[in-house]
Design a protein that fits this description.
This protein has helices at about 5-30, 35-55, 60-75, 85-105, 120-135, 140-160, 165-185, 190-225. About 40% of the residues are buried. The chain is built from eight helices and no strands. It is an all-alpha fold.
Amino acid sequence: MVPGRPRRGIVVLALLLATLAHLLAQLFWPSGLLANATQILLMPLLAGAVISFTTSPRGRLIRLVLAALFFSWVGDALPRFMDGDPAFLAMVGAFLVAQFFYIGALARYWKSSILRRWWMLFPYLAAFAVLLILCSPAGALLAPVIYGLALMVMAILSTGLGPVAGSGGAIFFLSDSLIALRSFTDIGIPAMGFWIMLTYVAGQAMISYAASQRDAQEKSTTTCR
């Protein structure tokens, strides 16, 4: 069954409105009820958009992207029921699992990625190195190294789905790098919460959209055979 356009439009509109409300809240009331309430809506709405843009049965790519969005939501929601280090570890752990699901989803397309053009890897390696250098004063580098490696691999593999996903992967890398800087360094960026969430939603939305398009293309190719 082809997804109904009215339902698709409603989900996309809800996602846009929730994102706008959350970004405004990050600018003016970052610790308020609006910021907290809208943040836990973002990933479910994005997952709903992915479902509305794809048809059943959904392939491995879409299933793994939806799993990544689920664990991103866990990273958004679960720490709100905790305090201190457990909350931080829950957030980082959930987001790391989300990265592993993205890597699993994108690994199949590595031959179309920049891995076949090794010179294009330098910006990603440089960004990873800069992130580690900036986080090094914190002392414990194991978490930044593991998380940074997962981020870098995800961003590189995302290029296998084309420029939209590749740009989304780079933006998502930026988002989580800002989280690392906020967590492990004293570097302060004005309205950091706003920039983290803007890049967080935009990056995942771009990857999700590209995955939905690829899923449709693969099904069309299979049907024509």
